[in-house]
TrEMBL record, chains A, B, C, D:
MF GO annotations: hydrolase activity
InterPro entries in alphabetical order: dCTP_Pyrophosphatase, DCTPP
Organism the protein comes from: Streptomyces rishiriensis
Domain of life: Bacteria
Protein name: NTP pyrophosphatase (Non-canonical NTP hydrolase)
UniProt keyword annotations, A-Z: Hydrolase
Residue ranges of the TM segments: none
């Protein structure tokens, strides 16, 4: 399914259950943060190395996959009620970041663009 | 751009800057949580009604759009390094939720499925 | 119990279980974010008015109380391993905020100090 | 300053600025999550080892200290408006966790209590 069709399926899911009343931007932002918190909990005690192999544990792999789906679900609902074209927004952000993080300054550094000098 | 092409652009962006070393699943989960925290900060003092009109304020509209793009960016990177098909994962999750939240029990209620009775 | 004695109890709890290896600042920050995410999930679908009466529901009251305790627990552990005096840090921050948010400019406004003018 | 006197100072700070209208539990929970997100952002690209030395960088040390103070501030405001005794709540939670995480089962393991067997 494409992003748009998933977004429509989620909207219909909400309409059928009369959940639109709960889906204010404020509430959806909280739901997104809640799901990202659940994702954090899965990874909090893992070393970076363990985290790189998390999908080799079948039980955890299912959890991680479902949490990513949940984050995407609320992100799509949020974009829908705010009337934001997510893919377009990200394409523009990537262009913007090309200028904020020029290769010759940002290479191998995790610094924020405000600290890159130049 | 499609989700896949955005994912590729983000991967290339990271490779060009030698950022793959930072993009462990653990770190990307933190980055996702950090961006969702920034989104929360935009909405924290708004009433639900104000949140519904947030895009009418030009300055805030730009912020909200960029934060959603940032969340999507890290979500796509995370799915990429974990080798998860996000759209497929969400399609499956929606199916699963149809059973967890049957219309006749969930209608008009924000309860978790464990509290829906049946 | 005072904050210091709680902090000592938590440190001892970790030592007894050989959990110090997991309690790096990075991991504890994640645990704190995870717990604050659980708190968000309790409140995400409530209206502001419902949230003001959340303690009248016995089951939810217990949950909220435990989540606040969990957040405090990880905050204390974090301050401990980073050797930060939390109460002192907060006293200083309040002083700083007195200057960032002067009463005559901040009255009745939820704006960030950078937007207060003056 | 003690926790109670800090809590009173924060309440007075809010009253002086007529901010009580913004301090619903729902909004304060979001503010807490926002601050914990800022803390996450400081640590997201650090290795666990680097995170253990974060206070040796003067600039970062100031940031970390202020973010911990901010988290504590909102946690205290939240406990205040919900009428929860934080220290008491944590003392009880520690007792509860003694039973959920018995030393002989939990030693050296980061598992959740539901996975400890016994």
């Amino acid at each position: 399914m494409t992003l748009i069709s998933l977004q429509r399926a989620l909207a219909q899911f909400a309409v059928e259950r009369e959940w639109e009343q709960f889906h204010t931007p404020k509430n959806l932002v909280m739901a997104l943060a809640g799901e990202s918190g659940e994702l954090v909990e899965i990874f909090q005690w893992l070393t970076p190395e363990e985290s790189a192999h998390v999908m080799q544990d079948d039980e955890r792999a299912v959890q991680v996959r479902e949490e990513l789906a949940d984050v995407l679900a609320y992100l799509l609902r949020l974009a829908d009620v705010l009337n934001i074209d997510l893919e377009h927004a990200l394409a523009e952000k990537i262009e913007k970041n090309r200028h904020k993080y020029p290769v010759h300054l940002a290479r191998g550094k995790a610094d924020k663009y405000t600290q890159l000098g130049g």
